Amino acid sequence: MKNTFFIAMAMSGLLFFSCGDDKNKKEPQEVATVETTDFDYNVDQFADLRILRYQVPGWEQLSLNEQKLVYYLVQAGLEGRDIMWDQNYRHNLTIRNALEKIYTTYEGDKTTEYWKNFEIYLKRVWFSNGIHHHYSNDKLKPDFSADYLRTLLTETNTTLEGEAFDVIFNDKDSKKVNQAKGVDNVALSAVNFYGPNVTNEDVISFYSKKKSPNPDKPLSFGLNSQLVKENGQLKERVYKSGGLYGPAIDRIVEWLEKAQEVAENKAQGDAIGLLIEYYKTGDLQTWDDYNVAWTAATEGNIDYINSFIEVYNDPLGYRGSYENIVQIKDFDMSQKMAVLSENAQWFEDNSPLMDEHKKKNVVGVTYKVVNVAGEAGDASPSTPIGVNLPNANWIRAAVGSKSVSLGNIIEAYNNAGSSGRLEEFVHDEEELALEKEYGQIGDKLHTALHEVIGHASGQLNPGVGETKETLKNYASTLEEGRADLVGLYYLYNPKLQELGLVDDWKKVGMAAYDGYIRNGLMTQLIRLNLGDDVEEAHMRNRQWVSAWAYEKGKAENVIEKVTRDGKTYYNINDYDKLHELFGELLRETQRIKSEGDYAAVEALVEDYGVKVDQTLHAEVLERNEKFTSAPYSGFVNPVIVPKMNDAGEIESFVMEQPASFEEQMLMYSKEYSNLPEKN
Fold first, then answer.
1. Coil, helix or strand for 484?
2. pLDDT tens, 26-80?
3. Residue 143 contacts residue 120 (beta carbons within 8 Å)
4. CA angle 256, 192, 119 (to 5 degrees)
5. Residue 598: in which H helix or E strand, if any?
6. Exposure of 79 by Cβ count < 10 A (0-12 exposed, 13-18 middle, 19+ buried)?
7. Is the peptide bond before 676 cis (omega within 30 degrees of 0)?
8. CA-CA distances (angstroms) from residue 270 to 28, 59, 266?
9. pLDDT, tens only, 181-237
10. Could you tell me which residues are beta bridge partners of residue 560?
11. β-bridge mates for residue 372, sequence order
């Protein structure tokens, strides 16, 4: 039935994209559940988390060499898993090893509430790659006592002491990433990108002295290193073979070398070779050379993302988190999506940006639907649903970028079941009907526009530095909001119907606008504890876009706040005017980026994106209590098992699904623990 559903919808000229942004951990909006297959997508649920499985369409159609390539790339990614744990927090590996030893060796009473809470805590730590929540960045709080943990340690002959023990229960290092205004963000962030006593001022001063050989092609200083103080002097510890994380990187390189041997073509093989050289040397010029080669290598059925890439975990946006995603091309859907790439210049030319901020020649934008074959690091268990890379502005301008939608991940989300939250928060039956008929399409098209057009659009003014330098701790949320606004502006445009992407552009746009405002002003609040500010970059951008549009449209009642039976709803009265407002805000966000206007971005984000109406938040949380479905989801990965012939050569593969979340997590720790507890 699922295949029939997709075929029928494709025949009507509709495209299926995920609603996500590059690096975004957001899941698709709650929509009506589609019919499921016999495949069991659901694995486990605990705390605020749900664990799912995904299938890998197209695997059987690959040649043996292509399957080998996928397998080698997946293995390379898993070998670096411990890097992400250590990057997230300096005590994570010590704590994980102790908790896992307790879990696997404890022979005491496992029926008590304390033991059940211990299991939940361990699962939460696994999910977040450490002791801080994967989304809120708050330290996870165990529902068992320090005395109980001491008892477990004693009975299993396990050692966990000193700060690594105390930090589980005290208030130290309470935020992995602290993005608050007016504080020393580096000093108050627990993330392990910086050594003790390193401050915001240290980081800014250190990198202000770095000069790229070619100012027009600035290197990504700080991307692959830890910045520490030794004898009062700042020093980088570079991630490379023989350097920081060297034991894991050496294993990554071994698998990448195997992958290079079975590359589908020369361009792909050359790119993998440059990635290997980068891992061996840590040289940032080689990183840029690799990204240029990787971006240009668009032929073939297999692609991948691997290395230190996204900078969301760095409060100042310099250092990249380790990440791996291995992808198999979805041939049919990628062909349909080519229409957006082919028309990228039209979208740029017709955008509401100031003329001086428009690109005269949008180059190299590719967008594909892919099916994930394996993920690791910052992409697992919590995965993005769309990715646009590389991040360097000059490479985007000169060479282009690759955008992908993770099709089988979206399929898993949509088939795993609906909680009913949609019906609770829509304003009326008309909004519900629009969402049910057009919500998934609008949601997914938003990703396509965000990735292909949004991140590729606009240009910096001559002489303006990189966004991370000019906009600092607001750079990430500004960029994501800007790309969101590109998508919102064009979702409500007849051009989409002219291109054959939708059959009713207005209704698709209306459904998309309803969903965005509903989420930005209300439903995403279920992810926060009462009293919290909004800190995660994507949540901030969804709130400041929505709140700005709501306030600016008040005089004309563009978006109406409705109270009915003690419940709050937001109803869009004028979609045409909201479209204009999104255009105005897009123009302003591009100006801020192009000019590097820090004062303006600070005002925009702090005024609209950070603070939460506590009365509304309490109401939303109360309304959400009746729903049992967890607000966050993540995935176990299928396990690719090679079958060998008598000569010890791979002759085939079997793809297996793990039976449980804990089975996979323990297997990963057994097979891919390549780092010492202290690095």
1. helix
2. 344 444 444 445 899 999 999 999 999 999 999 999 999 999 999 999 999 999 9
3. yes
4. 85
5. helix 598-605
6. buried
7. no
8. 36, 24, 6
9. 999 999 999 999 999 999 999 999 999 999 999 999 999 999 999 999 999 999 999
10. 571
11. 327
Structure tokens given for 471: 């906009």
- C-alpha 596/C-alpha 333 separation (Å) is 37
Beta-ladder partners of 324: 306, 376
**Side chain identity at residue 419, one-letter code:** S
CB neighbours of 347 closer than 8 A, spacing ≥ 6? Answer: 449, 453, 457, 486, 490, 495
What angle do helix axes 575-595 and 505-521 make, rounded to 10 degrees? Answer: 70
Longest distance between any two alpha carbons in the chain, whole Å: 77
Question: What number of other Cβ atoms are within 10 A of residue 599's Cβ?
Answer: 8
* C-beta of residue 215 within 8 angstroms of C-beta of residue 338: no
- Based on C-alpha coordinates, what's the Rg of the chain? 24
Read off the pTM.
0.80
* CB half-sphere exposure, 221, CA atoms < 13 A: 22
Q: Which residue has the tokens 């989801």?
A: 633
Backbone phi and psi for residue 200, each to the nearest 5 degrees, phi listed first:
-55, -50
Cβ-proximal residues to 575 (8 Å cutoff; 6+ apart), any chain: 492, 506, 509, 510, 513
Residue with tokens 């297997």: 667
Q: What distance in Å separates the CA atoms of residue 631 and residue 634, rounded to the nearest whole number?
A: 11
- Taking the C-alpha atoms of residue 603 and residue 209, their distance in angstroms, rounded to an integer, is 28
Could you report the per-residue pLDDT of 414-450, keeping only the tens digit for each? 788 766 788 999 999 999 999 999 998 898 789 889 9
Is residue 524 within 8 A of residue 632, CB to CB? The reply is: no
Encoded tokens for 265: 């073509």
- Of 626, 454, 428, the closest CA to residue 514 belongs to 428
Instruction: Please name the helix (run of DSSP H) or strand (run of DSSP E) that holds residue 226, with its range, or none.
Output: strand 225-230
N residues, the chain: 679
Q: Which amino acid is at 48?
A: D
